[in-house]
Design brief:
Elements: E1 2-8, H1 14-24, H2 28-31, E2 36-44, E3 47-56, E4 59-67, H3 70-87, H4 89-98, E5 107-110, E6 120-123, E7 128-129, H5 131-141, E8 145-150, E9 156-161, E10 167-170
Parallel strand pairs: 1-2, 7-8
Antiparallel strand pairs: 2-3, 3-4, 5-6, 8-9, 9-10
Helix pairs in contact: 1-3
C-alpha cells in the first residue's frame, strides 16, 4: 500500500512516521499494493488529531480522531478503519476482483470568491453506482450525504442521512 504522511502546520518526526508505517502495514493484507493511504497529523491547542484516508477499489475508508497524544489517536483511527473494512469486506473483495483498483481523483481547492460565500470547493469522481453502494460510501466516509451517478438512469442523485436514522434519496426531475 502506498503511504503519504502529511503534517499540517507541523513537522512529523521520523519515529512517528515509522510508527504510522508499522500500524498501517496491517492493512496490506486487505489491499496488497492496490491501496493508497494518506495520514494527516495536526496539533491545535495541545489537541492532537490524526486523519487516515485509505482509497482502494473505488472505496474510501476514513477515520479522524482527536486525542491527548498522536499514538492514542493513531490506535483508535486504525481500529476504526479496520472495523469499516471488516464490516464491508465482502463488497470490497467483489470490487477488487471485478473492477480492479480505481484511484479516485480527490481534489481540494481552497478558494475565496468575490462574494465570499463559497469557502472551499471539492472535486470528486462521479462513478456510476446503485443507491445502496452510495449509502455504503457515505457511511464509510462518515458524511451526512453523498452525490453519485445512478447506474440505472445515469442521473446525478444524492443520498443522505435522515434525522430519524433512515436514509433519503434525492432524484432530480426531468423537464
Amino acid at each position: 500500500m502506498k503511504l503519504n504522511i502529511v503534517g499540517r502546520q507541523m513537522n512529523v518526526y521520523e519515529d512517528m512516521k515509522l510508527l504510522i508505517e508499522k500500524k498501517l502495514a496491517k492493512f496490506d493484507k486487505f489491499f496488497d499494493r492496490e491501496g493508497d493511504a494518506t495520514v494527516t497529523l495536526s496539533c491545535k491547542h495541545n489537541d492532537k488529531s490524526i486523519e487516515i484516508t485509505i482509497s482502494a477499489a473505488g472505496a474510501l475508508f476514513r477515520s479522524e480522531v482527536r486525542a491527548d497524544s498522536f499514538r492514542d489517536a493513531l490506535d483508535v483511527a486504525c481500529s476504526n478503519i479496520e472495523r469499516q473494512i471488516r464490516k464491508n469486506k465482502t463488497r470490497l473483495a467483489r470490487r477488487l476482483r471485478d473492477t480492479g483498483f480505481v484511484l479516485p481523483d480527490q481534489g481540494y481547492d481552497d478558494v475565496v470568491p468575490d462574494d465570499e460565500e463559497i469557502i472551499r470547493t471539492k472535486t470528486f469522481p462521479a462513478k456510476p453506482m446503485s443507491p445502496e453502494e452510495a449509502i455504503l460510501q457515505m457511511n464509510l466516509l462518515g458524511h451526512q450525504f453523498f452525490v453519485f451517478n445512478d447506474d440505472q438512469t445515469g442521473q446525478t442523485c444524492v443520498v443522505y442521512t435522515r434525522h430519524d436514522g433512515g436514509y433519503g434519496l434525492l432524484i432530480p426531475e426531468q423537464g
